[in-house]
Amino acid sequence: MSLGTEKTIDAEQRTRVMAESIAKCSELKVHESPAWREINMGQGEGRTMDSLCDETLQLVATIQLRSNIRAANRLRVLPQGS
User: Which of 2, 64, 69, 82 allows an S-S link to 78, with CB 3.0 to 4.6 Å?
Assistant: First the structure.
């Protein structure tokens, strides 16, 4: 984000600037707290819960299929009469 200059600021700075702007207009005081910091969601960043659930269900189905294939392959290699 740029604030009228070429300087780019991070999310924490951007949030502080916005809070200070609101505080000036409303005569409120800004109280900073680490509890409000953004967190990194890793591969889930920017994704919906539906897409994550769909992907998880597909992964579980793939794991089950592979497990079933391995079990079937083990049955095929057993010696006759076992």
Answer: 82
Contact assessment for residue 23 and residue 30, using Cβ atoms and an 8 Å cutoff:
yes
Show the tokens assigned to 23: 């505080």
Are 32 and 16 a contacting pair, CB within 8 Å?
yes
What's the start-to-end Cα distance of the chain, in Å?
69
Q: 2 and 17 in contact (C-beta within 8 Å)? A: no
φ, ψ for residue 8, nearest 5 deg: -100, 140
Q: Are 17 and 42 in contact (CB under 8 A)?
A: no
